[in-house]
Amino acid sequence: MITHLLTRIDLMMNSFSKGQKRIALYIEEHYDKAAFMTASKLGETVGVSESTVVRFATELGYDGYPKLQKAMQEMIRNKLTSVQRIEVTSSRIGDGNVLDSVLGQDIDKIRRTIEETSHEDFNRAVEEICSAKRIYIFGVRSTAAIASFLAYYFELIFDNVRLINTTSATTTYEHIFRITSDDVMIGISFPRYSSMAIEAMDFARSRGAHAIAITDSMASPLVQSADSILIARSDMASIVDSLVAPLSLINALIVATVLKKKDEVSATFRSLEQVWNRDGVYTNHERPEPKAPQNAG
User: Fold this and answer.
1) Which of 39, 44, 242, 268 could form a cystine bridge with 65, CB 3.0-4.6 A?
2) What is the rounded distance in angstroms from the CA atom of residue 184 to the CA atom of residue 190?
3) What percent of the chain lies above the pLDDT cut of 90?
């Protein structure tokens, strides 16, 4: 028997009634919300009756709606293994246009991020970052790339940035043991969540630092230790989660800090441009036109 909820839904989609399909599509896109809804609330949200929701759970093979709800909650806690991700992606896309499908999903993730990210938390995070004595950025495994991207630009804007990208508990604590209430910790983690990211956020919070979580939902374990929560959707694209929306949110964070410190940053980049021009870091010239071949003879 196929045990994973999303796979069950995908395989049975064509057999569902119109109302059941609405439930199925909502769960596929918003299982993190649906997991904590009653059958009545889920039905109200998608525009069907409570009894339709209960029948939907039974149709999927669950012994009542509470078992379906538990399956959604387990999926949030554990997310998906790499093998499950391949299985679900294969059933969703099949032989379809992979390029259009993945890009379309990424567009939707950015749209949902715009709708769900708290502007209040975003603005608070910018204020705390700009006034912090030290800025710690934690991101490991798949999020190490976007953590490094954020650190690269923050190091050009600030002179107090510390990047932590190790899964070693000892090395992590060696990096952050001096953290205080004057500092900021930016923890970046998406499914499957890094246990070290959670520990680093907990430690920073215990020392009074302002903890900023960049994660995928309010069900993320990083949320409980965060003062500011920045939600960026990263639902499954394949064996890993898409980081398009998180990177876009990080771009917004960089732009906001630049605008907050406009005069200081402008002076910094004027100096950097002189160094870059002197050392030929970037090319300023177009490639020469190729010479016309000379006739032989």
Assistant:
1) 39
2) 20
3) 45
The pLDDT value given to residue 239: 56
The answer, yes or no, to whether residue 114 has pLDDT greater than 50, is yes
211 in helix, strand or coil?
strand
Question: Which tokens hold the place of 170?
Answer: 């000892």
Highest-confidence segment of 81-90, 204-213, 231-240: 204-213
Average pLDDT, the chain: 85
Highest mean pLDDT among 133-137, 238-242, 263-267, 275-279: 133-137
Q: Over the stretch 47-90, which tens digit does the pLDDT of each residue have?
A: 999 999 999 999 888 888 988 888 887 776 556 566 666 665 66
Domain ranges of the chain: 5-95, 125-278
| Cβ within 8 Å of residue 204, ≥6 positions away | 136, 176, 179, 183, 185, 187, 211, 225
Q: DSSP for 75-90? A: HHHH---HHHHHHHHH
List 186's β-bridge partners, or say none.
Answer: 137, 212
Please tell me the class of the 5-95 domain. Answer: mainly alpha
Give every CB contact of residue 75 below 8 A, 6+ residues apart in sequence.
4, 5, 6, 31, 35
Across-strand partners of 135? 161, 184
Residue closest to 7 by CA, chosen among 67, 44, 61? 61
Round to whole Å and give the CA distance between 27 and 196: 29
Measured between alpha carbons, how far is 118 from 17 in angstroms, rounded to an integer? 36
Could you give phi then psi for residue 283, rounded to 5 degrees?
-75, 140
Distance CA 248, CA 68 (A): 33
CA 265-268-272 angle, to 5 degrees, is 135
d(CA 241, CA 259): 30
Grade residue 154 by pLDDT with cuts at 50, 70 and 90: very high
Vertex 267: Cα angle to 264 and 269 (nearest 5): 110
